[in-house]
Amino acid sequence: MSATDQSSGSSSLPPPGPTSGIERGIDDATVISRGESFASWSGTATGPIAGGPATTGEIGRVLEGTMLGPYRLDQFVGGGGMGAVFRALDTTLDRTVAVKVLAGRQADDEEMLKRFRNEAQSAARLDHENIGRVHAVGSENGWHFIVFEFIEGTNLRDLVRADGPFDLARTVDVAMQVADALEHASERDVVHRDIKPSNIVITPAGRARIVDMGLARLPQVAEDRDLTVSGMTLGTFDYISPEQARDPRAADVRSDLYSLGCTIFFMLAGRPPFADGTMVQKLLQHQQQAPPSLDDIRPDVPTRFAEIVSRLMAKDPLDRYQRPAVLVADLAAFAEEEGLHIVAARSVGAPVVPFERPSVSPVPWLVSIAGLMLVVAAMWAASVWDRRATVTAPIMRTGDEGAGLVTVVAGSPEPGEAGSLAEAVRRVADGGTIELAYDGVRREDPIAIGGRHVTLRPAIGMRPIVEFAGTRPSGPEGPPAACDIGDGTLVIRGACLRLAADAGQGSTPEQRPALFAIRSGRLTCDDVTLGMPGDPTAPRPQTATAAAFVTVSAASGGGPRSSTIVLDRTRAAGDAVFLDAADAGPGRLTLRWHDGAFVSPRWLVAAQGTQMEPLDIDCDLDGVAVACGAGVISLGDSAAHPVPVRLRIRAADSRIVVDAGRPFIEQYGDADIDAYRTACQWIDSQSRYEGGGVFRHIEASTERIDESIRDVAPPLFHQTIPGPRPDPNGWAGWAR
User: Fold this and answer.
1) Of the candidates 460, 596, 436, 442, which has an alpha carbon nearest to the alpha carbon of residue 530?
2) Which of these, 449, 547, 540, lies nearest to 502 by C-alpha position?
3) End residue of a domain, out of 151, 177, 194
4) Percent composition of the chain: helix, strand, coil (DSSP 3-state, to 5)
5) pLDDT recorded at residue 728
6) What pLDDT is attached to residue 415?
7) How many angstroms separate the CA atoms of 139 and 68, rounded?
8) CATH number assigned to the domain comprising residue 117
9) What is the spatial distance between Cα 295 and Cα 268, in angstroms, rounded to a whole number?
10) Do residues 291 and 273 touch, judged by C-beta distance below 8 A?
11) How far apart are CA 540 and CA 537, in angstroms?
């Protein structure tokens, strides 16, 4: 808990007896209750007693300076909807802690006791540097309390109010930390449900810490034990997601991401996205109205970052980031490309530990809870999630000609629709969306994105499979590809894309066919299946021509380029290298893959050296099954391109399989042994390695060595005989 966690309560006392249907806690933590009364109470240091109501401020005055078990409550620092918070001394361990004491009038309410215990249990499941840790829970003389670590710092709400909106670098830094914490919580089945500026404390060192798990929920809890089953809407109206406002039990990590998007908006704009209006109006705005455009409010905010925030605040959870890890990857790539200095972000080499899942003045008006929920329910039903409606269509940010949303249909197209993917690509605007409104396989001509930002997704209920009938040159000297991204951005969600079996016929080794070609662009896949011709489980490549899922070519003008590929829940199979960087030239190439599989008789990454400046490849695998017959990495150089490729690969909680007798890494060329050893860095974190035996094979100018996997330090978990490979036939051509 923070020293400046929450402001103190009002000194005026509400009259004894039943409370209103709307209980508004200090710091805007709002609970729409079922209209039942709380027991009135007051208390002393020896325990709460019946008789009259009291506020958290009164609890502070009563208990400050007293002992609660081994904890000396030195200073009352604030309060929230459920209790008073004290800075305290743990006299047993001689350390400063924070103690939250349940508000006395709620101590006899069984549901509030459940929520209070739930806060402790939820926090106890988490152990992350960006989440406030719980030390203990207990009761003393009728006072119920939770002991947290004491966090020195100021919450985001107060920081922005005092100093004004954040700059872009600081905003990205905080957002990355909070998203990383949400990923940790999600992996442990904890949904916070109350992410907002006042629940994020910034320490003097710049570390963001999430506090207050009072509304947190464990999704696996049976519905009859859910703390919201009695009819509460929990959350804060300025930051609550549409689905959580309708039914808190529907909230999942995507709801927390929506709230984080609203919080990012607050950091940059100095106000929440829907700051005006009554409680009901705010609920309606969150569900119906597009938020203001960030780059209109803050012209210094790049369009791409505004689009990240817009995706976080999408009305439909399916249109948001599905995992916080994907958001972290996008933010990291954005920060790198923009040259932002991120002070407190987690180190890329940080280990990943796998987890086995197992008071305010009264409101001036009162609204009937039944009436309120009827209004919300009616509004929700009226705004059925139609992906073709303007609610989910991207906001047009430029004056470029083109449509914000183009739908590809199987039959005769109506106005605003397209009869082919190529036609839709020609018509869609920069920042627009192409929606595939058909089922099954459909052959399409190759496409080129150019310098635009385009999103490709299926219509609701549709499962399209895009099969490209052929390829075409990607630029004047680029390789043939079915989809030329170039210097643009392509985002694919929930679709299947593959290259037809006859698409690469007639290609030469110099014309390696690819599914995607990219220069200084970006490819993002979320819940996607990718396919290339050939048997992915064959013991060796079936063709001399090495096709590729993604090929990277040199930037226009020959200068250094930066390309980024971010994959989440994406699977790829076929007789092809996944990432072919043989002609990439100097620059930086980033591949981040979270959850998924790659099955091929070829390599995951194959690259060649450069002439002057190096090519740096940064590859992160997190929860990915990689089965490569030839090996995982192949790096080479020559007299014409003598500068070795520099590669850093991090494999966390992944499964890496190669054929018997093949190395996991191979490096070859005209440099010396030491140059190759330092050029490739492999960071392992709880991954499993199967097959092979040789970890790295190096053929240098003067000698050749094989490094045994048994000699790798620290030791890797390795089994000589590889287990069964991921079965692409079980994917049914569709990402699930």
Assistant:
1) 596
2) 547
3) 151
4) 25, 35, 45
5) 77
6) 83
7) 8
8) 3.30.200.20
9) 10
10) yes
11) 8
Residue 210 bridge partners (DSSP): 131, 200
| 433 closest CA partner among 468, 393, 472 | 393
For 490-511, write each residue's pLDDT tens digit.
Answer: 999 999 999 998 875 545 545 6
Specify the pLDDT at position 247.
Answer: 79
Is residue 675 one of the residues assigned to a domain?
yes
**522 inside domain:** yes
Contact between 610 and 580 under an 8 Å Cβ cutoff? The reply is: no
Tokens representing 710 are 């048994």
Q: Which residue has the tokens 């859910």?
A: 226
* Per-residue model confidence as pLDDT tens digits over 697-709: 999 988 899 999 9
Instruction: Quote the pLDDT of residue 402.
Output: 61
The residue with tokens 């042994």 is: 673
Q: Is residue 385 part of a domain?
A: no
For the chain, list residues with pLDDT below 70: 1-56, 79-82, 103-116, 118-120, 122-123, 213-236, 343-402, 476, 504-511, 542-545, 555-561, 730-736
Q: How confident is the model at residue 382, as a pLDDT?
A: 42
Number of other CB atoms surrounding residue 721 within 10 Å: 7
User: Cα separation of 253 and 193, whole Å?
Assistant: 8
- To the query of whether residue 194 is one of the catalytic residues in this protein, the response is yes
DSSP single-letter state for residue 34: -
Q: Give the tens place of pLDDT for each residue, 117-165.
A: 766 676 677 888 899 888 888 888 888 888 988 998 999 999 999 899 9
In the listed set 129, 151, 173, which residue is the last one of a domain according to the structure?
A: 151
Which pLDDT score is estimated for 370? 39
**Amino acid in the structure at residue 160:** V
Q: Which of 642, 684, 637, 644 is nearest to 664 (CA)?
A: 684
CA dist 326 to 118, 255, 331, 526, 635, Å? 28, 15, 9, 8, 27
b/e code 179-192 from CB counts within 10 Å (16+ = b): bbbbbbbbbbbbbb
Residue 91 amino acid letter: T
Q: Is residue 260 part of a domain?
A: no
- What gap in Å lies between CA 330 and CA 326, rounded to an integer? 6
Which of 158, 194, 595, 622 is flagged as catalytic?
A: 194
3-state SS record for 256-310: HHHHHHHHHHHHHHCCCCCCCCCHHHHHHHHHHCCCCCHHHHCCCCCHHHHHHHH
Alpha-carbon distance 590 to 588, whole Å?
Answer: 7
Give the domain range for residue 582: 483-496+512-711
Structural contact between residues 320 and 309, judged by C-beta atoms closer than 8 angstroms:
no
Cβ count near 10 (within 10 Å):
15
Q: How far is CA 449 from CA 425, 579, 591, in A?
A: 7, 19, 20
Our count of domains for the chain comes to 2
| Total number of residues shown for the chain | 736
Question: Would you give the DSSP letter of residue 129?
Answer: T
DSSP character at residue 9: P
Q: Residue 677: helix, strand or coil by DSSP?
A: helix
- For residue 270, count other CB atoms closer than 10 A to its CB: 15
Question: Contact, 433 vs 425, CB < 8 A?
Answer: no
Residue 143 CA to residue 346 CA, distance in Å, equals: 38
Q: Beta partners for 689?
A: 656, 718
Closest of 703, 573, 579 to residue 633, by C-alpha:
579
508 vs 547: CA distance, rounded Å: 10
Contact 328, 622 (CB under 8 A): no
Give the pLDDT of residue 212.
76
